[in-house]
Amino acid sequence: MPDLFSAVRVGAITAPNRIFMAPLTRCRAGAEHIANSLMAEYYAQRASAGLLIAEATMVMAGNSAFWTEPGIHAPAQVAGWQRVTDAVHAAGGRIVLQLWHGGRACHPLLNGGVQPVGASALAIAGDSVHTPEGKKPYVVPRELADDEIPGIVDGFRRAAQNARDAGFDGVEVHGANGYLLDQFLRDGTNQRGRPYGGSLENRARLLFEVIEAVCGIWGSDRTGLRISPLNSFNDMRDSDPVGLATWLAGRLNDFGLAYLHLMRGDFFGQQSGDVVTPVRANFKGVLIGNMGYSPEEATRAIGAGILDAVAFGTLFLANPDLPARIKAKAPLNAPDPTTFYSPGPEGYTDYPVWNG
To answer: 356 lies in a domain?
Structure first.
């Protein structure tokens, strides 16, 4: 029976345990969006994860949603991430990069006044974004024209090549949490017509084109995907999230991905349902679960064959030695939300390791 500490083959990557680190935006890359030595230290501290999934990283210039998140579209950014991958590999770890386009979650004040783009001209409601001028409401995005979409796909392709040049072990396509690819997937934000709107197949067309482009650089065995069919973060909805997840799980078998990374719930509890059961029944590859798993629940899910691995977020943020702590049943550090997105090492690289 597999458990959290048994090895697992994730495409071309052999993970020595099934305690993965979820991608967590930490806003330490500065206004230049360049990974730095502090980030290298942070990821290297957590290299005992079976697999590190690095944070959402801009595939194209002019699409910032967090002000100081990293990018992978410029030579200096490739060099910065090379520092990170070198540090992780020196510490014995494996790391993949999450490729991301913020879509309508971006803001003109973060992008030289440029209006963000989205699947449809619908703004994020009920929330605001941090900018150099303070918190501001989201703006109405410009609906991407069909003839602009090949440029988006090419942006992901070039970012995938840059990630390869930076020394990563693979990449994860970000299709979750209300960012551009997710905006096309879900019918609450995609109100366009054919060829990229309407049916499930049409709404998934951009995602599939991006996956094909990225696999063309990396191979499918080093390409993963993250989805969040239930999550209402970034003002997201779908009329049938369980149906979407079920259909998508089956179609993704065509790509032979290294893994599917499934966020099982909704941060805000506005949408509910079981997406894990139908995804497990329909997806034939490695399934990584995420959102609110305790080590005990993760152990049960893996032992029962429901999941192949679990990605821990804030637990890994606060416990750089999380696998060792779980194995020893040692106490866990509590994460400090006030430092999740603040600059500097506090609440980032200064969480203590366990000395048991």
So the answer is: no
